[in-house]
Amino acid sequence: FPGAGAALRRHRTVLIGGGGLFGRDMGRIGRLLPLYGLLAAALGRTLVVDGVGLDGDMSGVNRLLVRRLLRSAQRVTVRDLASARVLRELGIACLVADDLSEHMPAAPARTGRDLLRAAGVDEKGPVIGLWLAAVNDALTPSVASAVLDLVDRRPDMQFCLIPLSQHPYLEAHNDLVLARRLRASRPQLKIVEGVHHPSSVLSLIGALDAVVAMRYHAFLFAERAGIPLVPIAYAPKSTAWLDERRLRSVAPVGRALARAVARAVARSQPAAIQAS
User: How many CB atoms lie under 10 A from the CB of residue 258?
Assistant: First the structure.
């Protein structure tokens, strides 16, 4: 948190948001944010928490700190009904609002197409985006194996990895690490290299025929772009999003994933090749 202490001296309001900032997979950031917010409140700063998601399985100490933090906030908004239920159990009032990314317009359509071309994707055959994460240690090996199996089963399709999250010091949150590991095993995989504004990634999603996704915002972007989604839930926030839409996570098994992708492409392209 470079400069965080100095910011408290300069500003009268502290805004914390958005996303699943307090989940188990956030590591040190998830533990320090509540403490920082409580320090701000103790110094008389106005505290606002906007657009967050809350998991019901927060650890005991973190649950206590988050509860105190949110009780100190002047306003709390959450991005889904599951988070609102968690806060009701904690006795905290909140408003449910769209994820903050909903206020962001997509970049022009050509931006997404240019990113795919720069990654080496051509116009032949269906293009499937792979928006994967290695945050869940128990799930990652199965997902990696299933994706490699998927690539082998569907040589008629092009697969492009989209590592939007590239955390500088938390390897589990640097999707590029997993992407490069997968490409080392299957050189035909493409990767969208570089760091791109989320509006450009939203445009990119709109240029795909389907997306296999783990990250929460991949779900949101696919829904916004109207692109068929093949979801693999890795955390309670992912499952909650799917439950609200009566969708199911796909098992990280090669055959099941291949069938789900074929069905997704068939929805995107009615004349597409059906599942083998």
Answer: 21
Stated pTM of the model: 0.85
Determine contact, residues 239/80, Cβ cutoff 8 Å.
no
What is the number of residues in the chain? Answer: 276
How crowded is the C-beta side of 51, counted as CA atoms within 13 Å?
Answer: 12
- Burial of residue 137 (CB within 10 Å: 0-12, 13-18, 19+) is exposed
- DSSP string for residues in 8-55: HHH-SEEEE-SBSTTSGGGHHHHHHHHHHHHHHHHTT-EEEEEEE---
10-residue averages of pLDDT along the chain (276 residues): 78 88 71 88 94 82 88 93 90 91 94 96 90 91 97 96 84 89 97 95 96 94 96 90 94 95 87 43
pLDDT of residue 188: 96
The DSSP H or E segment spanning 216 is: helix 216-225
Q: Is 275 helix (H, G, I), strand (E, B) or coil?
A: coil
DSSP state of 238: H
